[in-house]
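User: I'm putting together notes for a lab meeting next week and I want to include a structural view of one of the chains we've been expressing. I don't have a solved structure, so I'd like a prediction I can at least talk through. The sequence is below, exactly as it appears in our construct file.
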Amino acid sequence: MKKLVKKKKMVIGITGGFGTGKSTAAGLLRKEGFLVLDADRIAHETLQATNPVFEKICEKFPDAMVSGFLERRKLAEIVFKNPARLKRLEKLIHPYVLKRFLSEIKKTKKKWIALEIPLLFESGFQKICDRVVTVFAGTQESDERLLSQGWTHTEIRRRRAEQWPIQKKMAKSDFVINNSGSKAEMRKQVRTLLKQLVLKK
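Assistant: Thanks for the context. Below is the predicted structure for the 201-residue chain, given as structure tokens.
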């Protein structure tokens, strides 16, 4: 990390299971003054026609094209039913996400940066993080959140199948946040995390 970003900055990777509350943790860090970068949001940029990766996606996934346009929902259906094609899509998108991360980290004047990355370990993004935090929650709590957001049980199962088991992520992390309780409890854990980060910097 020090070779990539010469200024004294601390880059925190935030990961966790599907629906465990990664965005909630990232939002709390943003309120504390962190620059927060969202891997999913950056990845979605590649689905815009003006993005340099867009044409490559269209070439590799012609069956996701409808009337000359890339249909995002169709693309999602294709890749989550076929692990090999999902990997093919990730190979197109992840280098772009990494490039954007490094660019924003280098550009910002903020000393604290949080990267919200669902597939952090699976994609090797821990290599650009100084510390990694895994957010976890009980399966029931996670399911309730996701179902209330419009996800189906089938979609939830597919998304989880592409990720490492949460226990494996926790074992590889520097810090763990339990989001099975209230928002107040979550805030308390984030404040504790901040104190620990300052001590370990």
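A couple of points you could mention at the meeting. Residues 10-200 form a domain with the Rossmann fold fold (CATH 3.40.50.300). Residues 38 and 71 are 22 Å apart (CA to CA).

User: Perfect, that's what I needed.
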